[in-house]
Backbone:
C-alpha cells in the first residue's frame, strides 16, 4: 500500500504557523506523518540548529559566519533545544491517539561537518578528529531523542528517523569551499564516510527506530548509504540518474523503503493533479521492472524536497495531492 509523507520543512515564521503545520501534516499525511521543521523562525529552527539541539555533550553557538562549536552551549544552542522541546510538546498535544508510523528528521554527520565550524574557525570537515567527535555526539544524542519520542508517542509502533545528507556528494567530491572561499576541502574517502554514517544509523536502530537517508542533491551515493545501514532512501525522482534507478530498485527488492519525490517543492506554474502524479510513479516502476503490488508500503511518495520555500497554500495542496495520488496507487 503506497503512502505519502513529507520531507520535513514547511513554510512559516511563528508559533501559530507551526501549530497549524502540525495539524496539516497529521491531517493530510495520516499514514506517515512527520515532525514539521520551520526554518523561517530563525537559525535555531534550521536543519543545522535542529541537529545541534540533539547532539550530546557538545557546545555550540551562532557566530556571524554560522554555527561554531564552543566549550559550553551558547544562547542560540539553548534556544534551539528549547524550541525543539516546545515543538515536541505541540506535536504530543495534537497527536493524541496517533498510531502506526511517524517520522522525524535530523541533519546527518557529513552535512553538519560541512556547515559547522571548529572553535577557531573553518569547517569541521577540515579536522578528521573533530568531525568524528561530532558524529559520535550526534549518534549518542539521537538515542535520547528517540527515547523521548517513544515516551510522547506511545501509540506509534514504527518510528522513522530520516538522516538528511544534502552535502554528502560535495564532501565526497571535494567541492566544499573553505572559509576563505578560495580553496576546497579535501575529499573524504568512501570507507570513512560509510563508517561515520554507520555510527549514526546504528544508534538509531539500537534505539528501536528505523534509519532512513534523504538527499535532494544530485550524485548522492545511494549504495554507500544503504551499505552504511540506511533502511530507507528518500530522493527527488527528477534528479535521479540511471545508476540511481538501479540502486532504488535494488533497495525495494531487498525489503527496504524508497521515498520518491514527485511533487514540486516550490509553487509550480501549473499544479500537478493526482492522476498524473500516480501515473508517473507507475511509469517509474515499469521502467525498473517492478510491479506495484510487489512493493506494497515500501514505496512512499513525497514532495521533491522540503517545502520551506513554498507558499502555505501550495504546501497544503502539495500534501493533499500526494495523499490523493497515493490512494490511486493503492
Residues:
Amino acid at each position: 500500500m503506497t503512502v505519502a509523507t513529507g520531507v520535513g520543512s514547511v513554510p512559516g515564521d511563528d508559533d501559530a504557523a507551526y501549530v497549524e503545520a502540525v495539524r496539516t501534516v497529521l491531517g493530510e499525511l495520516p499514514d506517515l506523518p512527520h515532525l514539521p521543521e520551520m526554518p523561517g523562525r530563525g537559525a535555531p529552527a534550521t536543519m543545522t540548529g535542529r541537529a545541534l539541539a540533539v547532539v550530546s555533550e557538545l557546545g555550540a553557538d551562532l557566530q556571524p559566519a554560522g554555527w561554531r562549536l564552543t566549550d559550553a552551549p551558547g544562547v542560540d544552542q539553548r534556544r534551539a533545544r528549547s524550541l525543539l522541546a516546545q515543538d515536541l510538546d505541540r506535536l504530543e498535544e495534537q497527536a493524541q491517539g496517533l498510531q502506526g508510523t511517524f517520522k522525524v528528521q535530523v541533519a546527518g554527520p557529513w552535512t553538519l561537518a560541512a556547515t559547522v565550524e571548529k572553535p577557531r574557525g573553518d569547517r569541521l570537515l577540515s579536522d578528521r578528529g573533530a568531525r568524528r567527535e561530532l558524529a559520535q555526539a550526534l549518534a549518542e544524542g539521537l538515542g535520547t531523542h528517540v527515547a523521548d519520542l517513544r515516551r510522547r508517542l506511545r501509540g506509534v509502533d514504527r518510528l522513522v528517523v530520516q538522516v538528511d545528507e544534502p552535502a554528502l556528494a560535495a564532501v565526497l567530491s571535494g567541492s566544499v569551499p573553505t572559509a576563505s572561499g578560495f580553496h576546497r576541502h579535501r575529499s573524504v574517502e568512501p570507507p570513512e564516510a560509510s563508517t561515520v554514517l554507520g555510527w549514526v544509523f546504528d544508534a538509531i536502530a539500537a534505539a528501536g527506530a528505523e534509519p532512513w537517508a534523504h538527499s535532494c542533491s544530485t550524485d548522492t551515493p545511494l549504495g554507500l548509504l544503504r551499505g552504511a545501514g540506511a533502511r530507507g532512501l528518500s530522493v527527488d525522482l527528477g534528479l535521479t540518474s540511471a545508476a540511481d534507478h538501479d540502486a532504488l530498485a535494488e533497495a525495494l527488492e531487498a525489503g527496504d523503503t524508497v521515498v520518491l519525490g514527485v511533487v514540486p517543492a516550490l509553487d509550480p506554474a501549473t499544479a500537478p493533479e493526482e492522476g498524473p502524479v500516480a501515473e508517473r510513479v507507475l511509469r517509474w516502476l515499469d521502467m525498473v521492472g517492478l510491479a506495484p503490488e510487489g512493493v506494497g508500503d515500501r514505496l512512499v511518495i513525497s514532495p521533491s524536497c522540503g517545502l520551506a520555500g513554498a507558499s502555505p497554500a501550495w504546501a497544503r495542496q502539495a500534501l493533499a495531492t500526494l495523499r490523493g495520488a497515493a490512494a490511486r496507487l493503492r
Summary: The CA atoms of residues 278 and 328 lie 7 Å apart. The radius of gyration is 19 Å. The longest strand covers residues 156-164. DSSP finds twelve helices and nine strands in the chain.
